[in-house]
């Protein structure tokens, strides 16, 4: 097609009014492109993960990483980041002496990127990034766990951590706190805030809540029985 013909085609397209069908086609095309980018680049590997458990990649800021590390001061041993993204938390933890430092991430591009960052930082032998679903990882041996996930998955994750982690484990959550747990320390403000939870204290806290609920239910039963004149 020569330049004159191209100009003519563009002129004709410009002159043509964009009807409802045209707008619908553009909207569908844009939607498809966004979806293809989401599936192909941002969320590959997530096909088997239910939609409500999918968490997008939003990397922790420098301040967030620093706050997490402050809360982990005085801890040692291994560390696990659930949903490790480009590996920045695992890498920093490894620099600060946590061994082994492991990140679990489903997105293969991010796993590759994390390994590249570790190699560039001279830490590649010390960290490990595994392409695994965090919901299927066995956490029974983990002493230090970090999570930067979305509020929609935190109550389910809370149950998994409570069922699997040892009593002396410490969990640090960034950006959003766990819905029913009591942190023993927090660090930072606003979006940079991080919350530290002791597993043992959490179990005690949850069992107190359960006892309270049981007593409340028993009281309610008694009241109902009285109300209905059954006593
Ligand atoms: C909000 S980003 C946090 C990334 C990193 N921890 C950081 O702070 O920079 C959450 C990450 O969790 C990953 N993720 C979400 N669901 C996952 C799953 N079921 N298994 C493994 N990784 C998952 C996402 O791909 C994403 O990279």
Please outline the helices and strands.
Layout: H1 3-15, H2 20-42, H3 62-72, E1 79-82, H4 88-95, E2 101-104, H5 108-120, E3 127-130, E4 144-147, H6 151-164, E5 170-174, E6 185-187, E7 194-198, H7 199-227
Parallel strand pairs: 1-2, 1-4, 2-3, 4-5
Antiparallel strand pairs: 5-7, 6-7
Bound molecules: S-adenosylmethionine.
Structure description:
This protein has 231 residues and is α/β, with parallel strands linked by helices. The protein has a domain at 62-198: 3-Layer(aba) Sandwich (Rossmann fold). Helix content is 48%, strand content 13%. The chain contains seven helices and seven strands; from the N terminus they run H-H-H-E-H-E-H-E-E-H-E-E-E-H. It has a seven-stranded mixed sheet. The longest helix is centred in the last third of the chain and has 29 residues, at 199-227. The mean pLDDT is 87. S-adenosylmethionine binds at residues 49, 55, 57-60, 81, 83-85, 88-89, 104-107, 110, 133-135, 148-149. One of its GO terms (biological process) is methylation.
